[in-house]
Structures are given as C-alpha cells and as structure tokens.
TrEMBL record:
InterPro entries with a match to the protein in the record: Ig-like_dom (IPR007110), Ig-like_dom_sf (IPR036179), Ig-like_fold (IPR013783), Ig_I-set (IPR013098), Obscurin/Obscurin-like_Reg (IPR052385)
Keyword DNA-binding: no
Name of this protein: OBSCN protein
Compartmental location: Cytoplasm
Gene: Obscn_1
PROSITE patterns the UniProt entry points to: IG_LIKE
GO cellular component terms, semicolon-separated: cytoplasm
C-alpha cells in the first residue's frame, strides 16, 4: 500500500480578462498512481480542446483556454483525501 499523498503547493487564485488562458498548478508530496481530478465548480474536467491537463512528476497543471465569463468559479484539484481550491 502506497503512503498517503499530500498537496505541498496549493492552487493560487487568479484574475484575468476574457479570452486569456487560465493556468492552475498544484504540487504533490510525491508521484502517485492515485486518480487526480480537476473540477470547475462541481463539474469534473477532462483534457479536450478547451482544457489541458498535464502531469509532470509531482506537478499537476490545468490550463483553461480562452476563458469566458461562464468559466468564472471555483477550481479544485482532488487526489485521495486531499483537495486544493482557488
């Protein structure tokens, strides 16, 4: 059984103008095979033409492309029992 993962670098609140890309980064205590999930409000996000989800070692990155006013809201990142929000 792998040891618990913790969030060591939390998400930061950002403000931008419509049409810009929003970039959120979170860093974990170690690499994990556990499922990590990004949310906008209560909606789970998937990698597609509007959202890019990247994992590089312990760093998890979410890019929301060309944001609109509808994209305004809480972003959260969940892995295991840990959550970080912005």
């Amino acid at each position: 059984k792998e040891p618990a993962v913790t969030v060591v670098e939390t998400l930061k609140d950002i403000t931008l103008c419509e049409g810009e890309d929003a970039v959120f980064e979170c860093r974990l205590s170690r690499e994990t095979t556990q499922d990590a999930q990004w949310f906008l409000g209560d909606v789970p996000l998937q990698s597609n033409e509007m959202n890019e989800i990247r994992v590089q070692g312990t760093r998890h990155t979410l890019v929301l492309r060309k944001v609109t006013l509808e994209d305004c809201g809480p972003i959260s990142f969940k892995v295991g029992q840990n959550t970080s929000a912005a």
